[in-house]
Every structure is written in structure tokens, then in C-alpha cells.
Amino acid sequence: MSVPTIFEWLERFAFLQSMSGVFLLVGLAVLLFFVPDWRVGLLALLGQYLLLGLLFAEVLAPRLAAVKVLVGLFVCLVLYVSARQAAWGRDSGAGGLSGPRRLRVGTAEVVVSAPLRLFVAAVWVVLAFSLGANGVQLPGAAGAAPHLLLAVVTLGGLGLLILALSGDLLRAGMGVLLALAAFDLFYSGVEPALAMLIGLGVLSLLVAVALGYVVQAARV
Prior knowledge:
The structure is a single chain. The protein is mainly alpha-helical. It has one domain. The protein contains eight helices and two strands. Strand 1 and strand 2 form a beta hairpin. Helix 2 packs antiparallel against helix 3. About 3% of the residues have low confidence.
């Protein structure tokens, strides 16, 4: 039995190069945001890289889109090995870097609870879909497919919210990687320069390596 080519894989999963794929991406981002187990979060991030590969194939050559997926696989592998070696999540704290997130607003301190995170995430998703429904375009992306812009805005915003509201270091780092992947998709559609595409891929790997180092250092 021959191994399917990149083009055959794209043909099989072409139905996800639409709003269906965006809905799945948002669902995986919600898992990453709310499920406390880092393994589930990492699987969600891996699924997002695979789905984003299908969207990358709409704005890049299929082989370049496959490279983006490979970068995502390496990122997830680095995080998995680092978290396993550090025994991440086996106790309640890692140098004070896990646990409920607390935000200070003036003299008041707000505990970022699950209902608050759910409310903020829901507001952002509704806002992003409303902007998409009204045909709002991002700067420099006039004429881009609506589902691509919606994926960029929704995932970028959710990634930054995960970074800001998560009390877990590893999960916050995954939020950074998600936001970076969304920016990568946006820039690939606006200006698919090879040097920039390589640079963004290398940046994702460097962020993953740095996050893995900090995760292990936090357990020492």
C-alpha cells in the first residue's frame, strides 16, 4: 500500500478548509483554555497545528504548508518531553508558577476563576464572529477568505487570553505559541516571503525550547 501524497491528504480533508475547520480550531482552543491536564492541552495544540496546516495550504504551496505542520509537531514534541521530564502537574505548585491566576486592578485583586475565563473567551469568540459576519477586513488582507481571517482573529485573541489569564506556566506558553501560529497564518496570506516564513518557523521552535527550559527550571 502506497503512502498518500500531500496532495491526496489535502483532497481528503478539503472539507476542513472552510468554516468547519475554524469551528474545530475554536473548540480545540477552548480545550486548551479550560482543561487543566497539560496532556489534553498539548493534544489540543497538536490538533490546531494539523488543522492550521490545511489553512496554510490555501495561501502557500502544499509542501511549505507541510513544513509548517512539521514545525508544529516538533514544537509539541519539545513541550511533551520537557513536561514529562519535569513531572509537570504532579503537585500544586511549580515555584508559584501554577495555580489560580490573580490580576491586580488598582487596589483590588481579582482571582481569575473558570467562570470569568469562560465569559471572557465567549465574549471574544462572539466579537470575532460578529466582525467576520460584517465583512471586517484586517489591514493588508483585503480579499482574503473570510474563514482564514476569522481563524486568525479568533485564535490570535484566544492565545493572548490564555497567556494573560492562565495561572499555569506551560499553558500560558502554549497560548503564546497559538497566537504566534495565528500571526504566521496571517502573514503567510499577506506576504508569503520565504525568509519570513522560515523566520517565523524558527521563532516558534525557539519559543518552544525556551518554554521547555523554563518548565524544567521551575521544578528544580
